[in-house]
Amino acid sequence: MSKTLTKPPLHIALIHPDERQRLMLNNALKGIGATITSGESWSSLAQHPLRLGGVWVLFDIGEETFTAVKQLRRARERAFWGVLILGQGEVSAQHQLTALGADAYLKYPFDFNSLSHQILSIAEERQPISNYQILPQQVAAGLDKVWARFDKLSYYQLLELDQAAAPHEVKARFHQRSLMLHPDRHRNIKISHPPVYNRVNAIYKRVLEAYQTLSDPLKRPLYESMLSLGVVEWNRALEERRKEILKISDDVEIQFALANVLSLRSRGLLKPAYELVLKTHQREPGNVSIKQLASGYEVLLELASRDPEVATAIEQQVAP
Amino acid sequence: MSDDIVVGIDLGTTNSCVAVMVDSQVIVIPDEQGHRIQSSIVSFIKDGSIIIGNEARQELVADPRNTVFSAKRFIGYPFDSKESRKLRAQLPYRVVRGDDQNSMIEIRGEAYALPEISALVLHRMKDLAEQYLGVEVNKAVVTVPANFNDSQRQMTKLAGELAGLEILRILNEPTAAALAYGYGKNLDAKLAIYDLGGGTFDMTVLHAADNVFEVNSTAGDTYLGGDDFDNRLTRVILIYLQNHYSFNIDKQTHLRGKIKHIAEQVKKGLSRIDKFQLTEKIRLLEYEEPVELNLLMSRELFKKQCEDIIERSFKICDDAFSSLSFSPKEIDDVILVGGSTRVPLVREMVEKYFGRPPRTDIDPDEVVAVGAAIQGAMLGAPFSIEQLKHNPLLLDVTPVSIGVMTIQGICEVLIKKNTAVPCEESKVFTTTVDQQTEVKIQVFQGESRVADDNIKLGQLELIGIRSAPRGEVKIEVVFEVDTDGLVSVRAKDLDTGLAHETRVKVSTGYSEENVSKMKDRLDSSGLGAVAVSPKP
Question: Rounded to whole angstroms, how far apart are CA atoms B399 and B416?
């Protein structure tokens, strides 16, 4: 490939309580061609506009370091930030910090070569994709938007679909995303830009997962019922509920209907949920489980009709 | 310039074919005689030379012991497996046990690994392409039956490397066929690919829409194909001979090859005409003059002999449709792949099964190579927004389930068959003994609940685990299937978040030492990976 690829700019935020140490690190890092901002404490730099991605180099001074890592993690653009900790901490502290989201922990004494090497590799991993200027700008910008909120986006948000989207719309959107994101489309950057390739790949895997769930008539309503519950570990929960439903009936239509009951219920639509249970029961009158479910809803509705406060409570209650 | 050329190679059990895409046109590359299909036959001549392809066909009869055909059927099956044993019984060439449990082919006292044989065929295809195009070719997409497992794919990839080719993709044959059929047609259709080759059968159902070819489900049998028709007809001919003459079959080295050849001609003849009188002279050791073979061959006889073989393919079709929300009758187009689909009885029965006639406007012998060439051009295309928007995309699935062995030898499935690739699934493993520093995990591929009934992919070893009371260390192991259908594994210590060292003996089943031996041998044969060194 003849096209030259620009290296993204590198920003470093250096935090060390001791000024001499700061100066020394500052000088040592000059050679790697970065803009460096330094400060004595996390709070003195907390408002620093490191918007275009970069690496925070923090000295491990206990509690404050933990706060800093946590806050960086929570920050909206955290995906573009890398965090490197310098310290002489215990093994347990290292583990806790990496578990919180720090990219690496460099132990004293370290040599400056390995420090700059670490910083560069973290920067490479964490840069926004648009900074690499290797993907079409519109694609890269979209990916950065997704990546910044990667763990928070629902499947609907990820595919930019309305909850009411019809199956063919889900499919068409998935196809459209696949044409842009499938690893086959980016195989030529696999070697030249592994961080970009890996991120596109991670996003594509999530898109695929979203499609597989939203195109499944049983999983989709179950996912919806979890969505409003705010279940984080919903994958496992979904599997459990799916199994429960499969136990109730072998009839796939009934299975879909029951999943929809859960979806309605989770949105506080008690009456429609009850009506759907009744309709389902007519399909298989001898089914005891569905009958029990119906009487359960009857009791709930009865309670709700007697006391408006109870009704609100039931609507807000999360468990089915 | 030649860097951009990616050829598509259909590496078949019986026949192989190579194609290339030039200026959005696919060309199926002919040999010196104009033949677009090459026999997947390798013959080792006494003087040390090697004949590959159509010219090696005559050696099947002339020198059956040193002529290898249908080698692909053995690929991925250890010497002691029942599949390998069954196959060996029917072959005129010698198969021996290699030092890594693999089946090897022994020619004049020297044992060749299966990827070496495939490499020779691939090398021939590469040569044809280079002669035709006048440039060096070193990139290819190679196709495999959809239901090939990880080790069979790895071996095919190794064969490519031995032949001096960078394999951009191991592509499933039916998916390639669908791409060839649908390319540039702007389809929105459900397609069924009925792929009956020489040795394998695959049924793949896919949906083509918005330029995306999305595989919904696939099922197959690696031991069902046109060779089975030949074997049935061979039996008919042998029974005739045994009824009319008295001879010892085991003493006649050339007889099986000769009869198999006749059987094949009969099959092909019956694809053209309803019936004919077969008259052949056959040499038997016990007789001075050649004896006469005189048999009436008809489609009726063929049906009686082979109907059940074709019936078996529809069981596999049922299997492919079992996980789908639509039935075979709702398919928009049925596409036939593989030379065996030229048999009229096959076409008839396929039409009955799907309730519609299959497409006959595609060449079943070339369609896979054409699809591979298109995919090759797509993968080799320079990067642009136009490419992203307009080039077709294949979304394939894992053909076989992947699991690990748990207590009592049960196989716990981690990645179900027909899962879209790329995909990954994780499982948390822990220590069962205090201060345990190693955990071994057996990885299997197959559909049986009993692990040992499946194909063992390999053993994953987690080593250097930090010393702790049992159950305390939790290691997350991630199993991944990539777009080639190849499996990889990585592990992470859940407490520390650190990547864990693993040793996986998955992959080809050949030691590095043996692989380099294969390379050396190919190089010294005057063929081999010589093309790696640049030509003038």
Answer: 9
